[in-house]
Specification:
Elements lengths: L4 H11 L4 H8 L3 H8 L7 H11 L3 H17 L5 H16 L1
Helix pairs in contact: 2-3, 4-5
Amino acid sequence: MENSFGETIRKLREGNNLLLREVSAKLEIDASVLSKIENNNRIAKKELIKKFAKIYNVDYNKLLIIWLSDKIVNELKDENNIDEILKIAEQKIKYGKE
C-alpha cells in the first residue's frame, strides 16, 4: 500500500536530514501546519505540492498523485457504494476527455 501524502513528505524530510522548522520556512508556512500535514491531520494546499517537489528534488507528478489519492480517500471513506462511485467517476472523466 502506498504511503499517505503526509507520511511521504515526512520521510522525505527526514531522509534529507531537514528539521520541521527548516522546511516550513522554505514553504512559508507555520511549523505546526507542516506537522499537521505530516501527521495526516490536515490536507496540504495544492500549491504546496510544487514547493515540496522542489525542496526534496522529487517528481511533482508522483507527489500530486499521492495527494489526489488522499483527497479521494478522505472524501469517500465513509460511503457505502465506493466501487460504484469510482466506476461512474471514471466513466465521467473518460467522457470529459473525449
